[in-house]
Amino acid sequence: MHRKGDIHLETLIVVILIMVGFFFVAKGVLFATEQAKYTKAVCKLSVLMREKLPQIDTPVTDIKLFPLECSTIKDDLPLSAYPTTGGTTDRTKQEIVEKQIAVWAADCWDQFGEGYISKNIFGKVWAGNQDKCFICNTFKIKEMPGSVTKQELEHYLATAHYKIIEKNYAGGGGSSGGGGASGSFGESSQTTTTLTADESLKEECEYKGGVCQAGCGANTEVEWQCSAGNKCCVDPSMVISYMDYVQQGDRGQISVAEGLVLEEKKDVYAITFASHTERQALAAYHPLVFVYDLLFNKPERQRIYISRFNDVKDYCNVQD
After folding, report:
1. Nearest by Cα to 262 from 143, 158, 180
2. pLDDT tens-place string over residues 51-86
3. Does any domain span residue 188?
4. Is 1 helix (H, G, I), strand (E, B) or coil?
5. Where are any strands of DSSP class E within 44-131?
6. Residues 63 and 163 in one domain
7. What is the pTM of this model?
8. By residue range, what is the domain housing residue 25?
C-alpha cells in the first residue's frame, strides 16, 4: 500500500507533468500558426494558467510559474480597402476605423480575463506606483478622411452594438456570444445535427433572446438573418455596447487618452490592458510598509487604454 506522502508526491508529479505538457502545447500552437487570430487564444490560456497556478513569493518579488504567452499585434487601418459603393461617406470610413479599434479593445479585454482575474496578472512590484500593463495592439491609420477625436471615439464605444446578452447570461463567467468584428454572434451550443439549416438559425435566434419573424418593429434591433426570408428581432435591452462590455459589473474601465486625435499617417496608436499591481511589502520586517500598503495600495479596476503609443509609458509600466 502507498503511504500518504507517496500519494501526495505522485499527485504533485502529475500536476507538474500537466503544466510542462501545456507549456509545450501552447508553444507549439504559437510556433505553428504565427497568425494573429491564434495568438489571442494562446494568450488567454496563459493568463488563465497564471491565475490558477500558485506563485512563489520572495522578499523582493513574486515568481509566476507559467509564462505569459501574449504578443502585440501590429496593423494598419483600414485592414482592407474602403467600400466603393455610392453610399460610402467620409463619416462611414471613419466608423470603419472606429469599429476596428473597438473590436481590438474588446478582444484585449477578453484575452486578459474580462476583469474576473483577481490576482496580479503581471506579478508584484518592489517599488513605484505604476501598474503593470501589456500592449495588445499598435496601429497606424494609413488612410482616413478627416480626423476622429477622443469624444467621437468614446461616443462610438458607448453606442455601437458589440454583442447580445444571451438568456443564460448571469453576469459572470465570461461571454459566450461572438464579437462585433463580423456581425456574427457565434453558434448556439444547443444546436444539434438533426436540425435543418433554417431550424438551426431560428433556434440560435431564440436562444439569444430574439424572435425570428418576417419583419421587426421600431423598438427592436435586427441582428442577423434567421431562416429563409426572416430576421432575428432582438429587444434593444439585450444588446450591449463595446463600452458596456468592458465596464459591466464595475469590473473594468475603458479610457481614451485626453486630447487624443486619430489622424491619417500621423502617429502610432496603442490599445493597452493595465492590471492593478500590488507593491511587494516587507511586512514581516517593516511594519510601516505594511501600514502604507493597507491604507494606500488598494485594488483598482482593470483598464483598457486607447492612446498614442509613445504615451503608454505615462499610464503604466509596459511588460514585454
Report:
1. 143
2. 777 666 665 556 666 788 899 999 999 999 998 877
3. no
4. coil
5. 55-57, 62-64, 73-77
6. no
7. 0.71
8. 1-71
